[in-house]
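A common beginner's mistake is to predict each chain separately and then try to dock the pieces by hand. The better habit, illustrated here, is to supply every component at once so that their relative placement is modeled jointly.
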Amino acid sequence: MSVTEMFSYIQGFLSADQDVREDIRKVVQILEQNAREILTVLQSVHQPSGFKEIPSKCARARELFCTVRTQLADLKTKFPVEQYYRFHEHWRFVLQRLAFLSAFVVYLESETLVTREEVAQILGIEVVREKGFHLDVEDYLAGVLIMASELSRLAVNSVTAGDYSRPLRISNFINELDSGFRLLNLKNDPLRKRYDGLKYDVKKIEEVVYDLSIRGLAKEPESGVDK
Amino acid sequence: QPFLPPSGEGCPRKNADAVQDRDASANPSSPIIAVFKVFQQELDTKHDKYERLVKISRDVTIESKRTIFLLHRVTSVPNAEDILNEADVKLDAVRQKIGLIAEELRGEDIYQFHRAFTAGIQEYVEAVSFLHYIRHRSLISLEEINARLVFMRTEKVDPKGSDEALPLGAQVLTFHVTPSDYLLGVADLTGELMRMCISSVGNGDIDTPFQLSQFLRQIHDGFSYIGNTGPYEVSKKLHTLRQSLGKVEDACYALRVRGSEIPKHMLADVFSSRTTLLDPEEGVV
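With all components supplied together, the output reads:
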């Protein structure tokens, strides 16, 4: 094989690779749009009027996840199933977003931590790599950390809206999450950096709880974690 | 009304209490802690594999580099065949290491760990293509490289242990160099070829530079054809490649124009810097 033939072959390979990535990008763009719509629905819970409407907003979000499931099913068809990590960078961001949104919905509904399996179910994907398009454990954890930030904001806004007990429950929840994350041996990667932000969320929520308790505004926090 | 300090300034006692309360609520039998223990194991397993691959890849890099240094000596010794045979042996050892990489990757998505071993593989491509060029004056193909990265692994051995017995459950393990790693290895090869050109001139060999010049030009043209569609590291290496090609082309020019005038032992000095090759008095081409 001559030099020219070799490069011609490689060029063919690279060109095909580019085409696949272009297809993937198109679907990811739609997914990002879907994620933004779900976020818009859920973000309104921060408004004082939003707290009463939490159940209906969660229901609405769940409806929107149907579209997400369809899009992800489409995404799966764009590349060979055993090459997930070859293209993973294209959807890593939006998948973390979707994991966060799933976790947020589940927290608003039941005040528990969504499991990886539940997120995969909401999104219509797998948990185990060998079974197909899956949710990587690191993307799931990133989503959980994004939710932690959202909850620290929710704690603040709960007080503003006159709900003085919610922050205490959020505080217990976040502290337990923090204990869980401390068990992990993280490397110096993006997940580690994101985890470093968790302590600021913990601190912010602690201060809210402190403000409430010294003013006698809060009852004793229930240790009801296993709801 | 009691004075309330602004809540932004936590007094040390408040924070210490908070930490105690926080850890007290970390019930070891809580479902969250339990599930994070599973995550810990999963992440540790993945990180450990990644680190093992990094270690093997480092060995591959070192041995490949040593092979390249060895191969540069062919221009300065009378019997090149000894060096080529020694290089064969060294690269066989490197291939065994790549077999270890293949074992680690068995059942895995190779792209999840690609960054751990890509540097070593590129170095191997550079070494093996260098040897191939010296022997055959041609570019080794990706297929030829991958054909030699096939490994036999035995799952069980015949309990009688005799040499004639066939191993039970013999497995074939393959490692595929990706087109992208091949490309990057070949880009680095051009730097070694440029060095070889300069040193061969210094040894009085005036044929090799012209052969190399033609070969390098073909490779350079190939990379130009690929342009930006390759991995972005290729675009970075293209700049170095152009410099290498320029040095080799200038060497050929100088040999053609002034080769007969210069004593052989001084030829190497002529090519030590590019600026000396363009003499303003002779007219710049």
